[in-house]
Amino acid sequence: MPNVSLRSRTKITENNAMEVDEVKVENTPMEPISPSPADPLTPPIGVDVEKPEPYSDAWYVIRKDNHKRVERRRRETINQAMDDLVAVIPGNEKNKSRILRRAVQHIKQLVEQIMALREQNEQYRETNQQQQEEIEELKARLDEQQNDHDQEEQEQQQKPASHPAEIGESS
């Protein structure tokens, strides 16, 4: 019995809107794949195939076809990477060399921004450190003045109460 699941498929429309479709997918047990008409040299899975004699005509054909497949995969990988790059780099270039130039330019701009932000961050740290030191100085001065004030108050309380007549004479 096939197992059915839902998968999401995302696509970008002409006006750059994103659409998500749910697609029903049947998961059936894998069956051996027969050779496709486009690729008659690929044997079905599980079938033993004798390798041709090295340097024979058949050997060269297989070697050439393998090289074509590898090269096609390489180009597909590069094209996919270029598409990914176009998606993250500003601009709407189609030419690969222009895409790469824009990518280099964008990366250089980002590096410059990072350097400027690091410098600004360092300046903020230095300013913050100076302000913290100033705060500590002011706290120490405040504590010192508070202690002086408390000491003067204690001295005032420890003096015997003076008579009003004595206060007038001392002035």
UniProtKB/TrEMBL annotation:
GO molecular function, one term: protein dimerization activity
Positions of region (Disordered): 1-49, 122-171
GO cellular component terms given for this protein: nucleus
Domain BHLH: 62-110
Biased composition (Pro residues): 32-43
Bias (Basic and acidic residues): 137-149
Gene3D superfamilies listed in its UniProt record: Helix-loop-helix DNA-binding domain
Domain of life the protein comes from: Eukaryota
PANTHER family associated with the record: CENTROMERE-BINDING PROTEIN 1
Name of protein: BHLH domain-containing protein
Organism: Absidia repens
